[in-house]
């Protein structure tokens, strides 16, 4: 994990500074709550319970101190599972270093070590906000198919991105975290997929696991302002820490959305189609009257979660459009089922379809798949052959 010289420097220089930061935690919390008392809205550190929309705003220095507590395994585990909260200490992260068959666990820890190196040489400034978003399904009847079929909104501009990761794009966007319903997923254990990697290269995301219980079907979590500290290469077993991230600083906006897990054929049933559309709508919606930034996403709920990539692409396009997002940058990551995505997007655009038009066709296709009538056809081929 470290050569001898790095280990000597770590224990001589970094660990004492981390201990000093830890000792400042009471003072940092006092400053935090004093600032909250002066605020017009409630933003203090607290449990953001399920079905209760709310926001926590933390300084990056306080976040660093809270993460030092995780490193030193100081948080009590009692009742966290009962409250639907993930473990927050780093003990399992280190434990699986010795049990893992792959070196990716070592590289996850290298990302964390690098974060602590950075903050000890230069304490970060600024804040990060953590928000539980709740879609009130009864308010606009989103739980009914007619909500989507009656939509007259135009489709957002859709760009197919065939290379690179979501976090590597230059343009400001709402970046999708393909989340577990327990925020962070296996970040602090042996997980190393899209969400876990994002939590390693942006460690300020990890603090969300402290106070955000599992998401319900109508909930997402949006985190604004977390900094990326590490560069990386690879994915899953091939994941590698590749040094300091020196890209230009920007205000990251990340939304954690959990898709159906191993849905199989039921993903084509209308109630689950609605669930996914409304989950994405919750994630992409904003209280701003005119959302100015687009969405950067990809194969949400596919891969390890087993979703249909073509269906998920259409779902996210509809949800982003219904949220009035100006654009979608869709990272295909080489998934072969999306080889015709650009062609399909142009085909839909040439017909000037809106959200309601796409919904009607997708719903019809899903109905046939659920009944087993089109098991040999994919959505794109069926859609283009039907019209």
Describe this structure in words.
This protein has 387 residues and is α/β, with parallel strands linked by helices. It has a single domain, classed as Leucine Aminopeptidase, subunit E, domain 1, CATH 3.40.220. The protein has 14 helices and ten strands. The chain has helices at 4-23, 25-37, 60-71, 91-99, 104-121, 137-140, 145-149, 194-201, 208-211, 270-284, 309-322, 341-350, 355-370, 379-386; strands at 54-59, 127-134, 157-161, 173-179, 219-224, 230-233, 240-244, 253-258, 294-298, 327-331. An eight-stranded mixed β-sheet has the order 1-2-5-8-4-9-10-3, sandwiched between helices. A two-stranded antiparallel sheet has the order 6-7. A hairpin with a 6-residue loop joins strand 6 and strand 7. Helix 2 (25-37) packs antiparallel against helix 3 (60-71). The radius of gyration is 22 Å and the shape is globular. The model has no long low-confidence stretch (mean pLDDT 94).
């Amino acid at each position: 994990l470290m050569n001898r010289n790095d280990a000597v420097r770590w224990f001589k220089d970094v660990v004492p500074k981390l201990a000093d930061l830890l000792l400042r935690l009471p003072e940092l919390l006092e400053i935090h709550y004093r600032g909250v008392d002066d605020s017009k809205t409630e933003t203090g550190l607290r449990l953001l319970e399920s079905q209760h929309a709310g926001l926590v705003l933390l300084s990056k220095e306080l976040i660093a101190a809270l993460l030092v507590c995780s490193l030193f395994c100081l948080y009590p585990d009692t009742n966290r599972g009962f409250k639907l909260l993930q473990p927050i200490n780093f003990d399992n992260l280190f434990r699986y270093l010795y049990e893992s068959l792959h070196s990716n666990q070592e590289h996850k820890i290298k990302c964390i070590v690098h974060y602590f190196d950075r903050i000890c040489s230069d304490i970060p400034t600024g804040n990060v906000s953590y928000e539980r978003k709740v879609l009130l399904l009864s308010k606009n009847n989103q739980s009914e198919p007619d909500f989507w079929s009656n939509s007259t909104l135009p489709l957002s501009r859709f760009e197919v991105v065939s290379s690179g990761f979501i976090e590597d794009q230059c343009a400001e966007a709402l970046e999708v975290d393909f989340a577990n319903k327990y925020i962070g997923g296996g970040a602090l254990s042996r997980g190393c997929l899209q969400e876990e990697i994002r939590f390693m290269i942006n460690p300020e995301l990890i603090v969300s696991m402290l106070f955000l219980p599992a998401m319900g079907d109508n909930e997402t979590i949006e985190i604004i302002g977390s900094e990326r500290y590490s560069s990386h290469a690879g994915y899953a077993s091939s994941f590698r820490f590749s040094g300091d991230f020196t890209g230009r600083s920007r205000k990251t906006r990340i939304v954690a959305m959990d898709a159906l897990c191993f849905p199989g054929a039921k993903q084509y049933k209308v109630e689950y189609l609605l669930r996914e559309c409304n989950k994405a709508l919750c994630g992409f919606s904003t209280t701003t009257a005119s959302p100015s930034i687009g969405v950067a996403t990809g194969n949400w709920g596919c891969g390890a979660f087993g979703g249909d990539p073509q269906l998920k692409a259409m779902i996210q396009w509809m949800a982003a459009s219904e949220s009035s997002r100006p654009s979608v940058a869709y990272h295909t990551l080489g998934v072969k089922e999306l080889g015709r995505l650009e062609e399909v997007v142009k085909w839909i655009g040439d017909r000037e379809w809106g959200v309601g038009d796409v919904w009607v066709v997708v719903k019809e296709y899903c109905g046939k798949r659920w009944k087993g009538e089109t098991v040999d056809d994919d959505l794109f081929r069926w859609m283009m052959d039907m019209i």
